[in-house]
Amino acid sequence: MFMEKKILLQERFEFRNIRPEETEQVVEIEQVCFPPNEACSPKAMRERVAAAPELFWVAVDKSTGKIAGFLNGLSTNEYSFRDEFFTDASLYDPEGRNIMLLGLDVLPEYRRQGLAGEIMFQYLRREREKGRSIVFLTCSQSKVKMYKKLGFTDRGIADSTWGGEQWHEMTCVIG
Q1: Nearest in space to 136 (alpha carbons), one of 168, 171, 103, 167
Q2: What is the pLDDT of residues 51-67, one digit of tens each?
Q3: CA–CA–CA angle 111, 82, 78 (5° rounding)
Q4: 0.90 exceeded by the pTM?
């Protein structure tokens, strides 16, 4: 069953790095997937795509040519997640050993099909192959169980106060 789902996802979607001409799609998707207080600003998203396109992994629906979901982050040598990663693309260090994940976005019509898990699986495998060590993310209490299934460990309440919310900091050792 698991392999069948994986094969179906790989047949339906193209998984790859973002292309510059797709920037506005991810800006729009971010606004759909997160409430206004949590969504990254369009300006910060554009700066992130420009600074680190190789850390933007997209799933493109082959039937429409449109992005269905994506995962993005910034590499760094830091070991603690801080809110500035959401807004300051200059914190990106191409040689950084760790990744701060900044968003896993899947459009509503593509949810509950395993797409988020497949995007994450491919992203982690790829970054492990690049020699990265640890992947960090923050998430709401409601998403902790999902991220645990994807191999992350809950480190408890994060220092992050992004969007005026309380977050859990989670990590996944990949190297």
Answers
A1: 171
A2: 999 999 999 999 999 99
A3: 105
A4: yes
Residues 86 and 102: beta-carbon distance below 8 Å: yes
C-beta pairs of 120-127 under 8 Å, 24+ apart in sequence: 120/71, 120/150, 121/150, 122/15, 122/57, 123/57, 123/71, 124/150, 124/151, 124/172, 124/174, 126/57, 127/99, 127/174
pLDDT digits (tens, 9 = 90+) for 19-36: 999 999 999 999 999 999
Q: Which of 34, 142, 45 is nearest to 85 (CA)?
A: 45
Side-chain half-sphere exposure of 158, counting CA atoms within 13 A: 25
CA 24 to chain CA mean position, Å: 17
Q: Look at residues 31, 32, 17, 20 and name the one whose alpha carbon lies nearest to residue 70.
A: 17
- CA-nearest of 63, 60, 167, 164 to 115 is 60
| 29 SS3 class | helix
Q: CB count, 10 Å around CB of 11?
A: 8
pLDDT attached to residue 10: 82
170 near 140, Cβ under 8 Å? no
